[in-house]
Recover the amino acids of this structure.
């Protein structure tokens, strides 16, 4: 017996100790059992003051089965004693470890040689978050957990699909040799480093993107910009065709824009200037300012038909209208690309140019400026370094593209696919992660057997990408929020790894069911965790600030109760070590 219960307040039991604390090893953070006549309660000693122990009630014990939470308080006559070490695994450990059911995480730093794990279904069938400040051992621990998953002795997670979006390219070294340890497990890598020929570049099949993806790619800022994106994408179905068909449809678009100007009723000088502007920017070999217009007895270039006579009128208005009308083709109902044909950034850019004049947009400077900024960004993309990521030789369907991502050259399954996004800026990296996540989410939604191919999207430095940004205002949703709300039913799960949880999307974080929290010091982040993470106690918050590197507090649906875990070092480690300043600075004197 440790002592006698002297008070119960809320979830705290006050125990007057009857042991000599000076002759007893520290009992703070140890578990105790409070036995009543018909019930056994489990608590944790959180503090000792004036020979009184403060015990947090955690749950109940029933036939070696620990149940978190208490529905009734113990009586004052309950006996209180430390739990025997043999019973500890039933509370925080794995009393009957099953390779297919359980995953070893690490060891208890409180109870020697007690392994702590998690139920694989409870952990990996839910979204999870791993937080920790720089230097807390977060990256090493993430690598160790996944190494544990794939290095089981008798069971192989062959059908697992972990897509790691690697912000610094540090996980490559931790997983590249998985196949040498477990021949059935394969690692595959992609990079944004266009100068590294040893690893294939990340590729984005433009034809698999939808209107929302293009809006994100071009950094659209309002819903009013979506119609022009949609129009441009519909025109792509023309511009990706044979050249003669393209020119015919380009002529039609230009002709309709000119006819709208001619019929606008504006002053002749305005009409002339607008038609000059259209044909200066948008023209074909058949329809341009120098196109010859034939009339009995003479021929003149189109631009001369726009001359204003001494009465202030465009004398050849009727001739010009008749000539332009011959370029009209029968209206064709255009549809958005369905991924069934290949097109390029250049095709999309051409379509954007003609989309700008197809709806009479040139008649409004304000609307033109709002739409034209998208075309300018697209032109920068076409002519910039990032165009390489869209340069793909062969056409693939969405399913073929995903299958290639998830397999290695010999056709065998790849379980870990690492996307090194270290060589692009944060804005483009965010767009890449969103596009890939949306493609995988839509793929999983359309599987014949729902949830038959589990996919885990692991986002390192998730606060850079999973944010409370403007997506919901522009396209109506944030793909990461949607995945966290709907992904479980389709077996698409997010793993959010971050050192700044306060910058994460509140919706995405609220949908996470399991948490591994390493040392956190920033008061904003600590307070945010306190407010956002379910069932977190003040005692856990206090411990977060004092954790050693490689030690975390784990809690959520996969854990029986919040547990302190010391993780093993990964082998090999990720490339996440801090710079060795002393070795770099100093040289020996000669």
């Amino acid at each position: 017996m440790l002592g006698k219960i002297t008070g119960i307040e809320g979830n705290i039991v006050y125990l007057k100790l009857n042991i000599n604390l000076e002759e007893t090893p520290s009992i703070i953070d140890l578990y105790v059992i409070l036995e009543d006549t018909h019930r056994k309660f489990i608590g944790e000693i959180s503090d000792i003051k004036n020979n009184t122990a403060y015990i947090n009630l955690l749950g109940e014990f029933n036939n070696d089965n620990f149940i978190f939470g208490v529905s009734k308080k113990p009586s004052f006559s309950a006996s209180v004693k430390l739990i025997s070490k043999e019973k500890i695994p039933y509370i925080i450990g794995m009393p009957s470890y099953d390779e297919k059911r359980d995953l070893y995480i690490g060891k208890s730093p409180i109870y020697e040689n007690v392994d702590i794990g998690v139920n694989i279904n409870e952990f990996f069938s839910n979204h999870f978050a791993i937080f920790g400040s720089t230097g807390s051992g977060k990256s090493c621990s993430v690598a160790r957990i996944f190494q544990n998953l794939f290095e089981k002795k008798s069971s192989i997670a062959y059908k697992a699909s972990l897509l790691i979006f690697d912000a610094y390219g540090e996980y490559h070294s931790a997983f590249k040799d998985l196949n040498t340890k477990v021949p059935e497990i394969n690692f595959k890598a992609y990079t944004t480093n266009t100068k590294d020929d040893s690893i294939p570049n990340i590729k984005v099949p433009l034809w698999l993107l939808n209107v929302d993806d293009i809006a994100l790619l071009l950094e659209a800022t309002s819903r009013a910009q979506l119609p022009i994106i949609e129009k441009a994408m519909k025109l792509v179905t023309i511009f990706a065709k044979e050249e003669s068909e393209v020119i015919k449809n380009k002529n039609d678009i230009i002709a309709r824009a000119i006819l709208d100007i001619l019929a606008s009723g504006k002053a002749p000088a305005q009409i002339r200037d607008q038609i000059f502007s259209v044909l200066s920017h948008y023209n074909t070999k058949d329809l341009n300012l120098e196109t010859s217009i034939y009339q009995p007895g003479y021929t003149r270039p189109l631009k001369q038909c726009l001359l204003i006579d001494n009465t202030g009128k465009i004398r050849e208005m009727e001739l010009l209208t008749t000539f332009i009308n011959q370029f009209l083709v029968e209206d064709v109902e255009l549809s958005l690309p369905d991924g069934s044909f290949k097109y390029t950034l250049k095709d999309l850019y051409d379509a954007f140019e003609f989309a700008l004049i197809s709806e009479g947009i040139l008649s409004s400077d304000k609307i033109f400026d709002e739409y034209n900024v998208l075309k300018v960004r697209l032109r920068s993309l076409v002519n910039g370094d990032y165009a390489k990521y869209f340069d793909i030789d062969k056409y693939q369907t969405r399913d073929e593209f995903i299958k290639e991502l998830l397999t290695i050259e010999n056709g065998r399954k790849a379980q870990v696919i690492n996307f090194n996004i270290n060589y692009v800026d944060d804005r483009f990296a965010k767009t890449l992660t969103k596009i890939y996540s949306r493609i995988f989410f839509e793929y999983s939604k359309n599987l014949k057997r729902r949830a038959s191919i589990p996919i885990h999207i692991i986002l390192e430095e998730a606060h850079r990408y999973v944010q409370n940004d403007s997506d919901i205002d522009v396209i109506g949703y944030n793909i990461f929020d949607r995945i966290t709300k709907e992904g479980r039913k389709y077996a698409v799960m997010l793993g959010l790894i971050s050192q700044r949880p306060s910058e994460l999307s509140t919706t995405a974080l609220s949908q996470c069911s399991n948490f591994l929290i390493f040392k956190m010091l920033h008061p904003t982040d600590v307070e945010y965790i306190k407010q956002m993470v379910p069932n977190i106690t003040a005692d856990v918050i206090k411990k977060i600030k004092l954790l050693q590197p490689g030690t975390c507090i784990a809690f959520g649906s996969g854990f029986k109760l919040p547990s302190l875990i010391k993780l093993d070092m990964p082998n090999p480690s990720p490339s996440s070590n801090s710079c060795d300043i002393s070795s770099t600075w100093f040289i020996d004197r000669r």
Summary: The CA atoms of residues 11 and 57 lie 6 Å apart. The longest strand covers residues 52-62. The chain has a mean pLDDT of 91.
